Input
Amino acid sequence: MRILSVNVGRAVDADWAGNLRRTAIDKRKVEGRVAVLENGLAGDERADTANHGHPDQAVYAYAREDYDWWEPIMGRDLRDGEFGENLTTAGADVTGAVLGERWRVGTAVLEVTAPRIPCVVFRNWLDERGWVKRFTDANRTGAYFRVVEQGELGAGDEIEVLYRPSNGVTIAESFRAYHGDRDLMLQILDLPGHSDKWDRIAERVLGDRSGVVAS
Output
């Protein structure tokens, strides 16, 4: 398992980018070593900090193998970084990673926190009809990470899994929890150190029960 490409982007104005009209979804490959800071990669920006600025969304990874699956379906070539990910991986089952799983990449340590939830900006960026539903149905979401140890990384670095919870919930399962699977949501709330964003999502999925479970 290794990093195929490291991608960063700057925020730009865009009429199609939702209510904010500003986005940094256009991530482009960078050469050399890149610093991994507390809240993401050096040189990378997030325009919509309300929805994408949480420390548990510091780094986003997507698998090259999932791009390869999408290409014939979409009828187009997909470059590394096109889905807005910071790390394009090779040989890693990113959506099969477990919440709380820790990766060492270069000298940094990253922890899996959540799946990518498709939004209108993602849809408009790709200009694909019905994209939110298609991406949701495919359940090939990629994964968000928090930064546990700062460091640096670069293309070609091996991915070392330092820790994988034995009773964990995969990214694919957590995506189903987001979309209403109550049993999986309860499992997530039982995970030590789960992102506080899951507590807020649970209020929608579990209703009145969430406050009791998450307390």
Summary: The first helix runs from residue 49 to 52. The chain is about 30% helix and 25% strand. Confidence is low (pLDDT under 50) at residues 210-215.
